[in-house]
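>> Question from a student workshop board

For tomorrow's exercise we were told to take the sequence and the ligand below, predict the bound structure, and bring the output to class. My setup keeps failing. Could a helper post the expected result so I can at least see what it should look like? The ligand is zinc ion.
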Amino acid sequence: MAEILPITQLGNPILRQQAQIIENVHSGQIQKLIDDLITTVVQASGVGIAAPQVAQSYRLFIVASRPNPRYPAAPEMEPTAIINPRIIAHSDEVVKGWEGCLSIPGIRGLVPRYQAIDVEYTSRDGKLHRQQFTDFVARIFQHESDHLDGIVFVDRLQSTQEMMTEQEYQQRIVQQQH
Ligand code: ZN
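>> Workshop helper replied:
Here is what the output should look like for this input. Compare the format with yours to find the bug.
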């Protein structure tokens, strides 16, 4: 049975560590961790979660894009496990967008990310994939990849002026879009 795991909060040193490569994707421990991460991110209404966010320092995250007020055109996808990811190329174009993080509740920030990335990763069945992601999904991928290297989105802000509380964000940014 998949479990909802407690989410590691900023300040916990595990969020600042380099996570380790997964050698055996097929192990029961890793397959269970994937199921638990999916259950946890869905329950938290997140669009992504990385293993260090549940205190498991492995190179694994879930991308769970769905349309939301910030990105009404975001693709609806089944929560997908991304294992040992590598960003092998990226666009010159960088776009700024608002991000939040389950490990940093109550804070939003305007984060520059590459508009498009070419990536390599292993899926939960052990297959190697090479794929391009753009826009919102590329943003999630970069945010979650950062977690595997001990980086959180507030580290990427160009200015602390581009940060606001969740409450202000909901009033100023989300409302404006309707
Ligand atoms: Zn995060």
